[in-house]
Design brief:
By secondary structure, the chain is mainly alpha-helical. It folds into two domains: 13-369, no CATH class; 384-493, no CATH class. Helix content is 62%, strand content 4%. The chain has a four-stranded mixed sheet, with helices on both faces. Strand 3 and strand 4 form a beta hairpin. Helix 1 (2-38) packs across helix 14 and helix 3 packs antiparallel against helix 4. Keywords: Membrane, Transmembrane, Transmembrane helix. The chain crosses the membrane at residues 21-44, 98-117, 148-166, 178-205, 217-235, 275-300, 312-335, 355-378.
Length: 496
């Protein structure tokens, strides 16, 4: 009788603990959303956002999936697939609904969701206060990836995918089949879905480390899940081509070294991240945290991918803490959720639990109010560093037409405005066979003959260059006329 009474008394406490956790995680998501709302325009400064939206618009209009390039004249007709078609459609729908404000709001909402999920999964093992604080620091570290492009939609997915797979491996259970539709969604949103295969493999290794060969049936279920992953990923408009496209970039795409986001980690440019990396390594060495060889390999893998290509910094900073949270909680109980649940609730936590629904309502009102303010009183838009808005207005008013030689950063805006490009951000599939290398060499010392050759080869009728484009002096020397210039862009036309 006493045991039954004790269990009934414990139930409200469990509910209170869960509610307090939820509020902590909602606070983390709200803080992140508020910070991004204050800097909404910064989410729109990537030149590729323009062409992603345009591709999404064209997909909605034509209801067909492209298989060849129609957006440039230098690679026209070459094989090209919109492998991130669903992410592009979502961006196009957001733009159609509320312009660039809609795109910014959608991006903010997805990042806030990822922060909520991150803090929720970390707080399943660590104290909620620690989980929330750690999540916000990690979210700040990966700030460079918060841009309005299709990869942003994968952040919540990769958090859930990693947390559940390593969670069931630790519990020595079969992987849940509901994760497969999530992988299918991922495969249609962005090409990084192949990381899902790798994460599943590392989780399987973690299980193997725990049970060895003692449970063949369980191991068979994991092998079957691993085989189903690539099969489920084929459920996209391009089938196996979408998978092959990711490996083409990862293993030898010649244009990759010339694109900033694909370059290796540079400590002089990412000092904050360097400090974080050194702090993580110092902490692991000093704490002597025991994580097992499978998770150690996962840490090394994510670190390798990050140091090789800075665009993948989020794999290390977001996923490694999720994977190691269980060991931290077990080996340092003072930091664990169990310790927090056993402690007497403080005033703030009791307040969160008691007024849970009211707090959720207030948060909802604040979010709706912030959205209303952003959409009515503030107009977020890309900088002219990528839009060349005034320069393109000049080009249209002066009826400039024909083949344009453009700076890389203006390629997306040109596509958006229906002007075929010389080069743009689709270098993972196009502008190969030395093209991107030649484009880079045109602006280097001694590049004038190369530029002159390209002008003739592609019958260039005008040029749209960023104000700091290193080819500008060569155009002057070749007798081209500067028809327009501002602090963002320069337009050249052939001299008389």
């Amino acid at each position: 009788m006493l045991q039954i009474q004790a269990s009934h008394e414990a139930a409200p406490l469990i509910d209170d603990n869960r509610r307090a956790r939820l509020v902590f995680c909602l606070v983390a998501a709200t803080v992140m959303a508020a910070a991004l709302l204050a800097l909404a325009a910064s989410l729109l400064q990537d030149p590729d956002s323009w062409w992603h939206i345009k591709v999404g618009q064209d997909l909605l209009a034509s209801r067909t999936f492209p298989t060849a390039d129609t957006y440039s004249y230098t690679s026209a007709g070459h094989p090209w697939i919109a492998k991130e078609w669903l992410g592009q459609v979502l961006l196009a729908l957001a733009y159609k609904t509320a312009g660039w404000n809609g795109v910014a709001l959608l991006t903010i909402a997805v990042v806030a969701l990822a922060v909520f999920l991150m803090s929720w999964h970390l707080s399943a093992w660590l104290k909620p206060t620690l989980a929330v604080g750690l999540t916000l620091v990690l979210a700040l570290l990966v700030d460079p990836v918060y841009i309005a492009r299709p990869h942003i939609f994968t952040l919540p997915i990769i958090v859930v995918w990693t947390a559940y797979l390593f969670g069931v491996a630790r519990s020595e259970l079969a992987p849940p089949l509901w994760l497969l539709p999530l992988l299918c969604l991922w495969a249609n949103l962005h090409a990084t879905f192949t990381f899902g295969f790798v994460i599943a493999a590392f989780a399987g290794l973690d299980l193997l480390m725990r049970i060895r060969l003692s449970n063949p049936r369980l191991l068979a279920s994991w092998i079957a899940f691993g085989l189903l992953c690539p099969l489920v990923s084929l459920l996209n408009p391009y089938g196996v081509k979408a998978i092959l496209a990711t490996f083409t970039v990862a293993y030898g795409n010649e244009a990759v070294p010339y694109i900033l986001e694909w370059r290796p980690f540079n400590a002089s440019e990412h000092g904050f991240q360097e400090v974080a990396l050194l702090a993580v390594l110092f902490g692991l060495l000093v704490s002597r945290l025991q994580i097992g060889w499978a998770k150690a390999l996962f840490l090394v893998f994510t670190l390798h991918v990050y140091l090789t290509h800075i665009r993948f910094m989020y794999l290390f900073f977001l996923l490694v803490p999720i994977v190691l949270a269980t060991e931290v909680a077990e080996q340092y109980p003072a930091l664990s959720l169990a310790k927090w649940m056993a402690d007497k609730r403080d005033g703030l936590e009791r307040f969160f639990a008691k007024w849970f629904y009211q707090i959720c309502g207030v948060v909802g009102v604040l979010v709706v109010g912030a959205i209303a303010v952003l959409t009515s009183a503030y107009q977020a838009e890309p900088s002219q560093k990528t839009s060349a808005r005034d320069a393109l207005t000049f080009a249209e008013s002066h009826h400039l037409s024909g083949n344009v030689l453009n700076s890389y950063n203006f390629g997306g805006s040109l596509i958006f405005h229906g002007i075929k490009t010389f080069i743009d951000g689709r270098t993972d599939q196009l502008f190969l066979n030395g093209f991107t290398k030649t484009d880079t060499e045109m602006g280097r010392s001694g590049g004038k003959p190369i530029l002159q050759e390209q002008l003739k080869k592609y019958a260039i009728d005008w040029a749209l260059l960023t104000a700091d484009d290193s080819r500008i002096p060569f155009f002057d020397e070749l007798g081209w006329k500067r028809a327009y210039s501002d602090k963002y862009a320069v337009i050249y036309v052939p001299g008389a």
